[in-house]
Amino acid sequence: MRFFLLLLLISFFGCSSDNGTIKIKGSDTEVNLAVLLAEQYYFENSGLLVSVSGGGSGLGIASLLNGNADIANSSRSIKYSELELFENRKIEIDSFVFAQDAIAFVVSEKSSLDSISTETISKILTGEFQNWSSLTGLNMPITIYGRQSNSGTYDYVKEILKINFSPHAMQMNGNAQIIEALKVDASGFGYVSAGYVLDGNSKGLKILPVYHGGSTAISPLDVEAIASGEYFFQRPLFQYYRKVDYQKIKPFLEFEQSKTGAKIIQQSGYYPVDLR
Question: Considering the entire predicted model, what is its pTM?
């Protein structure tokens, strides 16, 4: 209840233009983590309120451009086309990597699949593999659950695999929606941030260890493997901001780097940047 009331309070004050409020918008991958960080920050520093909302990395960067956000959460690097828009408006921006994330590839717990290669992932996501028969022996169409094109996770998976997604892939609004779909669809295959498949969230699901080439299959939940950079699908989580606003947001950025911030990041299924 306390957490719910705090979110209401943060959202209420976040709608104002008060200089005592930091508005964060963007990545769905980062939104739950950012809310937890904002909640703890509020209890320790009640003079500065933090409003957090999602909508995708693209939306966050657009909101920063239009002055509707102080920080844009992005699970991908800013695009050249987006940088041009800031340059055209003579807006100087900077970035801060506050955590790293691993992408989990997920199927129903009913699947006989125990691990998967990056090559097979590519063939599923492009639509080259459309049936589970060649992978599990079960004659059943593969349903792909992915993100919308404004998602940083969508861009990241597309770019690291150098693929174009199948036009038949289901484009879901967020990680939570993908997880819920996979729980009830034994034919499903999806990708989400590893932070979303911890504890009770993974019930009914199987998180697949991934191997690339001749490497050992590695789970996206393997802390030591992530720390050493061994997992193929791991990435930095960015926060972009206008340079002119740095002093305003600096206290919150420093909190994210603190021991308390690092603990929240780890407990949420993400990885502090000092693990690398």
Answer: 0.82
